[in-house]
Amino acid sequence: MKPKVAFICVHNSCRSQMAEVLGKLLASDVFESYSAGTELRSQINQDAVRIIKDLYHVDMNETQKSKLLTDIPEVDIVVKMGCNVVCPFLPSKHEEDWGLDDPSGKSDEEFIKTAKKIEDKIKDLAKRIKNDEINYDGEI
């Protein structure tokens, strides 16, 4: 059974959304991707949508929306995107913080850098799951 991975941050509009789409695109054979936050946004960050569309040819406006932690199933692995204040808490068997800066309001270059960092981290996470380097079995 594939582990469920939740990418979380406060607003679920930018980094966590990018991670969800890249997880689905690059690692769906290894894990299921979800994203969520503690506050809803009416729409996903449109700069993130544009950059993901340019780089990966996926329209997040079509495939995703802002979700609360309670909107997603129970997960095995939680990835915090990097929260300046307090990251939301979600029970899981494994948790890590990717410490990514929020590119919101910054240049396209910053969004591209963030997307590429997320891509690398998704591939690394998939590799670690495949190699049994992450323990996500057992009870939470």
TrEMBL record:
Keywords: Arsenical resistance
Pfam families on file: LMWPc (PF01451)
SUPFAM superfamilies: Phosphotyrosine protein phosphatases I
KW Disulfide bond (keyword) present: no
All residue ranges annotated as the Phosphotyrosine protein phosphatase I domain in the record: 3-128
Protein name: ArsC family transcriptional regulator
Species name: Clostridium omnivorum
